[in-house]
Amino acid sequence: MRGIAILFAGLAAILAGSSAAFAANTSAGLNVSRGESDSMSYSVNIAQKYDPLLSNSVIDIAPVAEIGGHAWVPKHDTPTVWGGFLAPGVRLTLNTDSFIQPYVEGTVGGEVNSKDKLGDRDLGSNVLFRTRGAVGVSFGEEFRHRIQGEYTNHSTWGITKHNDGNATYGVSYGYSF
């Protein structure tokens, strides 16, 4: 548990301390997803895309980091689970001469939730790993708008005895400023 707290603190410091923390590659996003246990998931995040590690006329491969919060709302009469997350990752963008740029993105990080149960699902812990994969397009002036489909898995990765976890799939919109 202490290791997760140190990981969160370190990633938050990297994201906040970046010299480009509020440059054009910073975006705010909204997500709506359908989840297991007949639930809906709503999240907001701030994401930072850093300078590419590899860039040529075909692709850019760049590190990313995201921080945000979510609410998992079960359909039946059970409490909403609130949480916060922080995750580093990588984005591969296809450079095009058109008005859209397709990309794929993946992040792996952690989250802390208000409860360790979501409806009938035993999450195993309030602290979970969060892995996310997304496919999307950037478009508009300077590619400031972003729409993506994503799949996110929230799990203890088998560290705890109970590990029902929660998986969500949905769509999100982001705007770079």
Backbone structural class: mainly beta
CA radius of gyration:
17 Å
In CATH, what is the class?
Mainly Beta
Q: What shape does the CA trace take?
A: elongated
Write down the secondary-structure element order: HEEEEEEEEEEE
The rounded distance between the terminal residues' Cα atoms is 35 Å
Report the CATH architecture. Beta Barrel
Q: Which blocks of ≥5 consecutive residues have pLDDT under 50?
A: 19-23
Structure explained in plain terms:
With 177 residues, the protein is mainly β. The chain has one domain (2-19, 26-176): Porin (Beta Barrel). Helix content is 9%, strand content 60%. It has 1 helix and 11 strands; from the N terminus they run αβββββββββββ. It has one helix at 2-17; strands spanning 26-35, 39-49, 54-55, 59-74, 81-94, 100-113, 117-118, 121-122, 127-139, 145-155, 166-176. It has an 8-stranded antiparallel beta barrel with strand order 1-2-4-5-6-9-10-11. It has a two-stranded antiparallel ribbon with strand order 7-8. A hairpin with a 3-residue loop joins strand 3 (54-55) and strand 4 (59-74). The longest helix has 16 residues, at 2-17. The radius of gyration is 17 Å and the shape is elongated. The N and C termini lie far apart (35 Å).
